[in-house]
Every structure is written in C-alpha cells, then in structure tokens.
Amino acid sequence: MKKLHAIVSNLKLAVEYSETTMKLFDNIKNKFNPDYADYPINFAF
C-alpha cells in the first residue's frame, strides 16, 4: 500500500506541476500576444 500511496502523491505533484507550467506559459503568451490569450497554448509561439 505504501508504494501505491507514493504513486498517487507523485501523480498529484505531476498534475500540480503541469498546471503551474500551463499558467506560466499563459502568462508568457499574454505578455507577447494579448489578443490570443484565450486560445489554447501553442508551444511553437
């Protein structure tokens, strides 16, 4: 059960990390191109 718990908490961390990363990319995109702030992130910029 400990292993399972570790996996679950790692998944939670991964989700939090990716959400933070997405927000970061949103902020960067908003600075460069406010008009397209509402569109999905395009990593190619």
From TrEMBL:
This is Uncharacterized protein. It comes from Flavobacterium columnare.
